[in-house]
Write a structure and sequence with these properties.
The protein is α/β, with parallel strands linked by helices. The protein has a single domain, classed as Response regulator (Rossmann fold). It has a five-stranded parallel beta sheet, sandwiched between helices. Strand 1, helix 2 and strand 2 form a beta-alpha-beta unit. The radius of gyration is 14 Å and the shape is globular.
Amino acid sequence: MDREYIRDKVILLVEDNPDDQLLTLRALKKHNVMNEVVIANDGAEALDYLFGTGAYAGRDTSVMPQLVLLDLKLPKIDGLEVLRRMRSDDRTRLLPVVVLTSSREQQDLVDSYGLGANSYVRKPINFEQFTRAVEQLKLYWLVLNEAPPPAP
């Protein structure tokens, strides 16, 4: 696959914890993920980015992320509500969403899949395990997976 094609695809990281943001960015870099990463610090910011509102008013919403990495425990609007709103809008209904969370609650797992998450990954505790998880995410979601076409 053409490296430029991969590099041009954006990853939306929806994560409020600065340490987890840094850890994710470091793990992506370690595995040579060249994609631009847009960070949303809460659920409201994620929705603004996706739908071109608020601070992202005027953003070209015909260009959507290749992948959304979504934490569940977020301020303002939680991850499950972000997922619910994404799946209820034609523009974002088919976007690949990987729930990347430290939640151990079975109900979060069930609710995430029930709302249309494509994958649910619990954040490993140590960096080495986390980087291996990110490597697997990269291989599948950014290289092997064929993303849906943009919404009309």
